[in-house]
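For homework, think about our next protein:
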Amino acid sequence: MSRDARWKALLELLVERGRLDVEEAASALEVSAATIRRDFDQLAEQQMLVRTRGGAVVHGVSYELPLRYKTARRAPEKQRIAKAVAELVAPGEAVGLTGGTTTTEVARALAVRGDLASGSPALTVVTNALNIANELAVRPQFKIVVTGGVARAQSYELIGPLTDGVLSQVTLDVAVLGVVAFDAAHGAAAHDEAEAAVNRLLCERAERVVVAADSSKLGRRAFARICAAEAVDTLVTDTAADEETVRRFEDAGVTVIAV
């Protein structure tokens, strides 16, 4: 296992459990305790975790794992969700994409759709996510519009009043939201309030709103609200979604697609 893969696995375990000791982590990753101690020390230097005697803990309840360490989490579910979301987009439409691992997969699914291989443009994509813009910019049939703003290191998203200036001037057919939490009563949410504000504006500029979220995000709350559940037209999730949770979304007027 490479160092990068090991760090991803360590951070995923840490976020899941909240605390890890050296021996526990070494056993889970099948590496030596010395390797784990070194990894913990290096991750602590990057402020990715807090080092403790004999182990490590996350920074707190609002801890957010940076995007580059989240790509492997629930990857099969995210890819299925992304393919289903991409199929909801018609050729020639203007699509807004927020940042996040699932929306990044949506961008990739759109990029390989055969009916979007040509056109002028085949699709207009408006995004505040630098990584998504970078991946799609090589597709000449796509018109890519990147908002201004200040880059947020955790998610590669542009935020702030400069972003608002661009989004207030565009109209979208569909906005695709990546969220950290989506609850029928409390709505869609993000960890960061500035990120949530940009996502909210993206929703307001769209004719329809799609939330792309795996089942682990459902029924949860997070600090910064993006929009109410009633503002969302469609939720695309995986088949592990709880039936009662799905029913609550449907009662709120959200169409649920489980893949």
Summary: The mean pLDDT is 91. The first strand starts at residue 19 and ends at 21.
